[in-house]
């Protein structure tokens, strides 16, 4: 970049668009240095680092489209008779909330488009968060110092589900009414407090007159407020802690390799926002979502086949559907286990498990050091397997939430699907664990082989005595560096001193369990460099990498010291 | 390598091919799938020669399962008292004569010999055996004469628990299912209500008056003919397909975009 010729070497790199305003501000409030530093913040280049951005941009679009909708939506359960343009409902008694949603869909210019974009964005928001979270999980990016940001993430996800549930209920159509009914069923089945909770939520008997306006306040004010605060905290923490990065050439725990925020990353992020918006606008235009006019207004007496919640609630629906009908009677109270267990157990299991995982892992491995270079999933096989079995658990419940659609569309007996589900929900995650574990070790072995023997070159050589061999060449420099990023998983020291007494904290049954888990979870399963004579000179390359980390002055491949 | 071959090897090429294939399949299916039969039932009449002809047809096509004089066998129930409406419904929708033995006899294309005239003859014969509901008149099932809004309320109150809010169908227990209502003619809808085939309850004229039945027909027909205002209807089965689309199109598309954005520029000397 040729902005300046002479004597300001430290700004010579900075484009005018940044240096201009920053010196303007600098001369007035002395913030130029701050801006300059942050504009050069380095962001790693890997597609999986953009997954979180799907959620971020969907959230922005949700805020904008949602605001549009509030201009016409009436959060009231007062009764009106519909006389709008949708003929099959004309003259039908309905709530004002439902009527105003129809009004937005059919009379407000662009209303249906915005409504559909809002709903698609809600699905993409949660889906993006889940994808992002999986990338953070499987690469171990939640490890110290990022545990706090992980916790914020789990809170964000939980709140997003609540935000989705309240939003879904607002139009007061038949389908969302069915969801509300289930919510109420869960609330009232809580031991001891159930009736009170239900009465509080609905302002009296179900369905009452209050629930829509209460949900409205939650949906447009309280939850989004908390979400904005948490997303901000999430971003600030990420900014301050800097990005983690994939292992690779020149990447260490002490630096970040990638492009600078401005202009490289800002351009990428900007265009990615446009991509997200394009996909959402495209879906909103071409794919119908939540056609409330087909569902009809909610009346507690009507219930439809194929009533389903949005996908992110599907796993709760699934667990309700495969649960056998159990009830426990205690002192004249009936505890409907068939509602409490499926409603609370999977949700609790998934969310608590997510929140605690970084801390449990720390406890097991005894690892208190900072990590800025992430793991490749194969290099921590137990974590990856735990993740995969959780995905299987969640995925199966989600699938079973649609058991009636499966039965109807693929002509399978409903009973058979449910029975399959009851068994699969226990066997599936175990199988997933075993299979994933084997695959991880297999992949590690393959890496070790590539490092040890090189890759097949496709060149066949004939040796003087007539034998044919395929020539192996060392792997490309960047690929090898990526593979060599592997470090052994920390484990607690084996323990016992000379007298065979384990160290403090590892005595007693819990301590012994911890030790055993640590030895299983940690350590090196497949060492990279097995001693084997010919080494194809793989080792010298490492020295070069260190050098590269220090260069990085031009173009894309920059690096900053932490 | 020519330009075309280079393109063909492009990493996105196979997705493009897949998309193209799917699109072709969809167009082909839409072009060749059977259109709804307009089986406007003629009025069942008890004319003597119809009964006679009907008996002959019955003997050759139905007797094996429904037995002599339709008194029933192990393979088929008695038809005494089911009425002409039941015969018209079962035959015009292709259910009868049944060929497969399963949880439920499915709707299928009519065999070549089945014409409306022959259906009427068999219907007249079955009607002569023990009465029962008759085939509705053209006027009784004319959607234009019904009030869809009133019909919609009745439809939601009585039918969607099995047939889904948009008549897209749904699963019942023991491998049975409520079919979608996309290809039922107005007469078949009426007949289904008065005869209650299989697991479906009978909605006789005291539960739902003939006028109300016409309203419901008007609703079902108007909703299924309506072009979805929001774009592709995604099968009108609600959040299940929506969730799939969100993941496949939404997340899938954005992951491709992310890979593309972050891809390293290939150096010329690479
Ligand atoms: C409102 C929803 C969310 C938004 C808008 C969001 C956005 C982001 C963005 C844009 C980044 C930086 C890019 C990236 O690393 O992908 C990030 C980083 C991070 N997110 Fe989220 N995220 C959300 C939810 C979550 C969830 C559900 C979790 C996990 C439970 C989570 C955990 C993290 C962590 C630990 C980091 C730091 C990762 C690193 O530096 O490598 N976030 N978030």
TrEMBL record, chain A:
GO molecular function: metal ion binding; oxidoreductase activity; quinol-cytochrome-c reductase activity
Pfam families: Cytochrom_B_N_2
UniProt-listed GO biological process terms: respiratory electron transport chain
UniProt keyword list: Cell membrane, Electron transport, Heme, Iron, Membrane, Metal-binding, Respiratory chain, Translocase, Transmembrane, Transmembrane helix, Transport
One GO CC annotation: plasma membrane
Cited InterPro entries: Cyt_b/b6_N, Cytb/b6-like_sf, Di-haem_cyt_TM
Keyword Iron: yes
Compositional bias (Low complexity): 550-562
Top EC class, one word: translocase
Keyword Transmembrane in record: yes
Catalytic activity of the protein: a quinol + 2 Fe(III)-[cytochrome c](out) = a quinone + 2 Fe(II)-[cytochrome c](out) + 2 H(+)(out)
PROSITE patterns for this protein: CYTB_NTER
Required co-factors: heme
Sequence ranges assigned to domain Cytochrome b/b6 N-terminal region profile in this UniProt record: 21-247
Membrane topology: Multi-pass membrane protein
PANTHER family assigned: CYTOCHROME B
Protein name: Cytochrome bc1 complex cytochrome b subunit
Originating species: Spongiactinospora gelatinilytica
TrEMBL record, chain B:
Residue numbers binding heme c 1: 62, 65-66
Keyword Iron: yes
Gene Ontology cellular component terms for the protein in this record: plasma membrane
Protein name, UniProt field: Cytochrome bc1 complex cytochrome c subunit
Main location: membrane
Coiled-coil stretches noted in the UniProt entry, renumbered to this chain: none
Protein source organism: Spongiactinospora gelatinilytica
Binding site for heme c 2: 159, 162-163
């Amino acid at each position: 970049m040729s902005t300046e010729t002479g004597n300001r070497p430290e700004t010579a790199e900075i484009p005018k668009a940044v240096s201009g305003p920053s010196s303007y501000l600098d001369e007035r409030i002395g913030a130029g240095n701050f801006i300059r530093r942050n504009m050069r913040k380095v962001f790693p280049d890997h597609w999986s680092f953009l997954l979180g951005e799907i959620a971020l941009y969907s959230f922005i679009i949700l805020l904008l489209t949602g605001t549009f909708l509030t201009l016409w939506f009436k959060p009231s359960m007062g009764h009106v008779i519909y006389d709008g343009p949708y003929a099959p409902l004309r003259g039908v008694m309905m709530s004002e909330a439902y009527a105003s949603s129809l009004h937005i869909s059919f009379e407000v210019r662009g209303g249906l488009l915005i409504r559909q974009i809002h709903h698609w964005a809600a699905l993409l928001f949660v889906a993006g968060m889940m994808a992002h979270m999986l990338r953070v999980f499987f690469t171990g990016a939640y490890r110290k110092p990022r545990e706090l940001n992980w916790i914020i993430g789990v809170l964000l996800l939980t709140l997003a589900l609540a935000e989705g549930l309240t939003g879904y209920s607002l139009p007061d159509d038949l389908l969302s009414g069915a969801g509300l009914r289930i919510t109420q069923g869960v609330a009232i089945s809580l031991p001891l407090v159930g009736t009170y909770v239900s009465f509080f939520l609905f302002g009296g008997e179900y369905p009452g007159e209050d629930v829509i306006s209460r949900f409205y306040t939650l949906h447009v004010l309280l939850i989004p407020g908390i979400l904005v605060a948490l997303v901000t905290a999430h971003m600030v923490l990420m900014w301050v802690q800097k990005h983690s990065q994939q292992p690779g050439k020149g990447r260490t725990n002490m630096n970040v390799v990638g492009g600078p925020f401005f202009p490289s990353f800002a351009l990428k992020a900007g265009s990615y926002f446009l991509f997200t918006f394009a996909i959402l606008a495209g879906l909103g235009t071409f794919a119908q979502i939540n056609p409330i006019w087909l569902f009809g207004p909610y009346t507690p007496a009507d219930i439809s086949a194929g009533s389903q919640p949005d996908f992110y609630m599907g796993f709760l629906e699934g667990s309700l559907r495969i649960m056998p009908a159990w009830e426990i009677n205690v002192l004249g109270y009936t505890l409907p286990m068939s509602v409490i267990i499926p409603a609370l157990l999977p949700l609790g299991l998934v969310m608590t498990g997510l929140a605690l995982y970084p801390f449990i892992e720390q406890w097991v491995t005894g690892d208190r050091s900072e990590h800025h270079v992430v793991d490749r999933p194969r290099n921590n096989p137990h974590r990856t397997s735990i993740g995969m079995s959780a995905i299987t658990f969640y995925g199966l419940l989600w699938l079973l939430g649609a058991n009636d659609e499966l039965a109807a569309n693929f002509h399978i007996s409903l009973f058979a699907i449910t029975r399959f589900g009851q068994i699969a929900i226990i066997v599936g995650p175990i199988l997933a664990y075993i299979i994933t574990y084997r695959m991880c070790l297999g992949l590690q072995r393959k890496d070790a082989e590539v490092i040890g023997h090189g890759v097949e070159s496709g060149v066949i050589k004939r040796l003087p005595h007539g034998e044919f061999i395929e020539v192996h060449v060392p792997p490309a420099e960047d690929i090898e560096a990526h593979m060599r990023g592997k470090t052994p998983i920390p484990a607690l020291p084996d323990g016992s001193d000379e007298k065979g007494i384990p160290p403090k904290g590892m005595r007693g049954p819990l301590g012994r369990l911890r030790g055993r888990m640590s030895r299983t979870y940690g350590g090196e399963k497949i060492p990279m460099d097995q001693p084997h004579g010919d080494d194809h000179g793989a080792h010298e390359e490492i020295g070069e990498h260190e050098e590269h980390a220090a260069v990085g002055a031009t173009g894309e491949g920059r690096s900053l010291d932490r | 390598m020519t330009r075309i071959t280079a393109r063909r090897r492009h990493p996105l090429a196979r997705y493009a091919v897949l998309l193209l294939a799917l699109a072709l399949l969809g167009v082909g299916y839409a072009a060749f799938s059977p259109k709804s039969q307009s089986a406007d039932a003629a009025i069942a009449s008890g004319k003597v020669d119809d009964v006679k002809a009907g008996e002959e047809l019955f003997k050759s096509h139905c007797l094996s399962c429904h037995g002599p004089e339709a008194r029933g066998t192990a393979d088929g129930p008695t038809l005494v008292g089911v009425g002409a409406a039941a015969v018209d419904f079962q035959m015009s929708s292709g259910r009868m004569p049944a060929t497969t033995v399963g949880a439920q006899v499915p709707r299928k294309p009519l065999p070549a010999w089945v014409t409306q005239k022959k259906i009427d003859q068999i219907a007249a014969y079955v009607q002569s055996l023990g009465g029962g509901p008759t085939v509705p008149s053209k006027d009784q099932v004319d959607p234009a004469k019904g009030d869809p809004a009133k019909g919609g309320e009745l439809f939601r109150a009585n039918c969607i628990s099995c047939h889904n809010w948009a008549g897209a169908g749904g699963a019942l227990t023991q491998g049975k299912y409520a079919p979608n209502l996309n290809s039922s003619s107005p007469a078949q809808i009426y007949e289904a209500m008065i005869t209650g085939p299989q697991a479906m309850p009978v909605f006789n004229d005291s539960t739902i008056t003939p006028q109300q039945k016409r309203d419901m027909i008007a609703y079902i027909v108007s909703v299924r003919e309506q072009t979805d205002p929001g774009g592709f209807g995604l099968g009108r089965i609600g959040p299940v397909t929506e969730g799939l689309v969100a993941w496949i199109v939404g997340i899938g598309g954005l992951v491709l975009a992310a890979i593309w954005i972050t891809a390293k520029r290939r150096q010329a000397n690479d």
